[in-house]
Fold this sequence. Notes:
single chain, alpha/beta, Rossmann fold, seven-stranded parallel beta sheet, three-stranded mixed beta sheet, 9 helices, 40% helix
Amino acid sequence: MRIAIAGATGQVGSPLAEAAARTGHDVVRLARSTGVDLTAPVDPALLAGADVVVDVTRTALREEEASAAFFTAVATNLGEAARSAGVSRTVLLSIIGVDRIGRAPREPAGRGPEDHYRAKWAHEQATREHAPGVRIVRAAQFHDLARVLLLALREGDTSRVAEMPVQPVALEVVVDTLLDVATGTVDEPVVEVAGPRVERFCDLAAAFATRDVPGLHVEPAPVSAVLAGGALLPGPDAVLGGPDFQTWFRHSNVASSP
């Protein structure tokens, strides 16, 4: 198959491109570093002969309106180019629970952590509107996300991290699932993928703090009712794959300093 990957040089796109090439697929890498700005109209010629487009784009923007605008632009430009090029399938990487969060009333306590999830819900909607043959892969939080936010939210010797249940997953499990959906081995409109065990997100951050940042205290931060109630947890039909967080943490090669 010819697989075009949007965001092909990022955290997910890079191993996905490697896995696709390793299993014999022809990979088209779309990213700023390869000369493609997905926030501008995309030349359909870049997708010539592609069987599927996989969108794993990310943004550092966290404020809802700005990140939603980014994702909507990417989905529109990529989707219109795919239709013009005759691509038959689109696979979008999203997040478990964005539909429940996107439809729920906004609560003041949920503003911070929910902004990104609401923006990804907009990403899903724009992809469905503009792209051909849409399949959605909704993943749980990656094992290392708690460390990223631990450091990003640090104020002095305290980091306030969301107190909410999650079922963190290894990046490799998500990559395998994306490839299965891209090739049609798994063919469902929406596929959820998560790890095997429920954890408290703030506890994951505390584990990283103890190991990597001596003296940094994690303070659980309240979240909205929808997040506290398990919106980020997978449903009964989800693809579950190990290792669990504790096993991954013991063997992780994350740098021991921030």
